[in-house]
Design brief:
The chain is an alpha+beta fold. The chain has one domain (9-93): Herpes Virus-1 (2-Layer Sandwich). 19% of the residues lie in helices and 20% in strands. The protein contains three helices and five strands, in the order ααββαβββ. The protein has helices spanning 9-12, 28-33, 59-66; strands at 40-43, 49-51, 72-75, 82-85, 90-93. The chain has a five-stranded antiparallel β-sheet with strand order 2-1-3-4-5. It starts with 8 loop residues before the first helix and ends with a strand. The protein binds zinc ion (ZN) (3 copies). The site of one zinc ion (ZN) has 7 residues, from loops.
Length: 94
């Protein structure tokens, strides 16, 4: 079953041609702490790559809590093409 979610204005203006791709395939906060992660997400505001909510440290959502204007992330996983807005809980596949 697919969730039908309204696409927020952030994701409406999301431009696939100007995506901020991951610069490294690791969570820089987990690396500093010597910790591990499950999946990686890339912030579309500043381009930082951090770990997902299934990871023990949830650095990507912490990043949004600290920087409320950094609400849009994309999956940094290979073969995953989607964006998520933390603020509006909006989801977009591209
Ligand atoms: Zn939004
Ligand atoms: Zn992390
Ligand atoms: Zn950011």
């Amino acid at each position: 079953m697919k969730l039908q979610v309204k696409i927020c204005d952030h994701l409406k203006s999301f431009d696939v041609a100007s995506i901020k791709e991951k610069t490294s395939y690791e969570c820089e906060e987990c690396i500093k702490a010597g910790d591990t992660w499950v999946h990686l997400r890339t912030c579309q505001e500043c381009g930082v790559t951090l770990c997902c909510d299934s990871s023990p440290n949830k650095h990507a959502s912490n990043h949004f809590k600290l920087h409320q204007n950094h609400s849009v992330i994309i999956s940094a996983e290979p073969n995953e093409h989607w964006a998520w807005c933390y603020e509006h809980k909006s989801f977009l596949e591209y």
